[in-house]
Amino acid sequence: MNYSYPIDMDWSKEEITTVIHYFEMIEKAYEKGVSTSEIKEAYRAFKVVVPSIGEEKRLGREFEDASGYSPYQVMKMLKNATTSTIKMKP
What's the CATH number of domain 13-86, 1.20.1640.10, 1.10.220.80, 2.120.10.30, 3.40.630.40? Predict the structure, then answer.
């Protein structure tokens, strides 16, 4: 990993940790696979920190630009998941 996570310097350390954990779950979905319950829980916590859809989209685009991993595509797959694990194709 040679990129940084999109964070807001106004967030508390706990909020930053929550957002980073969510983006780590996105990475995991691409690299190894992640359980649907694990990504759902990370997303719920993320939405407490980032309740605005516009802000969520902005952070998602920044993360995708830096990493190549799309939070949108992971969440889209999660919505339609029929298995207990999500594994994205690179």
Answer: 1.10.220.80
Q: pTM score, two decimals?
A: 0.93
Q: How far is CA 75 from CA 10, 22, 80, 81, in A?
A: 26, 11, 9, 10
Q: How confident is the model at residue 22 (pLDDT cuts 50, 70, 90)?
A: very high
* Res 2: pLDDT: 74
Rounded Cα distance between 63 and 70, Å, is 8
Q: What is the dihedral of CA 73, 89, 1, 59, to 10 degrees?
A: 0
